Amino acid sequence: MPHLVCGDLDSARPEVCRFFSNEGCSLKHITDQDTTDFMKVMLQTTEQLTLLPEQHVCYLSIKGYSCSQASVYVLGGFGGRFDHVLANINVTHNAKFQQFHITFVNNGNITAVLCPGRHIFQFPTQNHICGLIPVAGPVTVSTKGLKWDVSDCTLSMTGMISTSNQIIQNVVEICCTGHVLFTVELTI
Fold first, then answer.
1. pTM exceeds cut of 0.90
2. pLDDT in tens, 64-81
3. Which of 59, 78, 124, 129 is deepest in the core (most CB within 10 A)?
């Protein structure tokens, strides 16, 4: 159960708001129409994290790789209209939210926004379809553990992107010089 539901709530049905309220969830109505609901959520998340003691902030640690970014998991952030999907991706590149490791979890897909650097992921099984999408501009990428690994390959939206690749090892390493979306097809 979430602690907070916020946004302009223009599409939230009254019975849904009552349900969350009855379950002890705070509802925050933000009337600003110049930001998306996801932007409103991320601004609230940033505000809430500044109020938490350091020991209550969960940081990502995967097999020897630690990330000093707080993890944010977005459920359903890629569902619905394509312009909303792009708006949500746009929010992840906002300088205000660079302290977060943002992962979108949808029916059948997990998509992580990777910051520049080395990333190691461990998968319990292999053969998942995956892709690397450079939505914020050209990025140089090297990978290990994929069927079609790349080495110092420049990916860009006006050139090559890596789609329909396949995870062939339980450990995948991705090194990137800029922000890139790493998307994996999973059954969850």
1. no
2. 334 456 777 887 777 778
3. 78
24 dihedral zone (left: phi>0; alpha: psi -120 to 50; beta): left
Query: Six-digit token pair at 53?
Result: 């003691």
- Side-by-side strand order, sheet with 139-144: 117-122, 171-176, 139-144, 153-155
Asked whether 178 and 136 are in contact (CB, 8 A), the reply is yes
CA–CA distance, 18 with 14 (Å, rounded to integer): 6
Diameter of the chain measured on Cα atoms: 53
Domain boundaries, the chain: 54-185
CA gap 104, 76 in Å, rounded: 7
What is the pLDDT confidence band of residue 187, given thresholds at 50, 70 and 90?
A: low
Query: Do residues 79 and 137 make contact, with C-beta atoms less than 8 angstroms apart?
Result: no
Question: What is the domain class of 54-185 according to CATH?
Answer: alpha beta
Question: Hunting for tokens 């599409």 — which residue is that?
Answer: 11
Surface-to-core class of residue 164, CB atoms within 10 Å of its CB (0-12 exposed, 13-18 middle, 19+ buried): exposed
Whole-angstrom Cα Rg for the chain: 18
Q: What is the pLDDT of residues 42-53, one digit of tens each?
A: 888 777 765 544
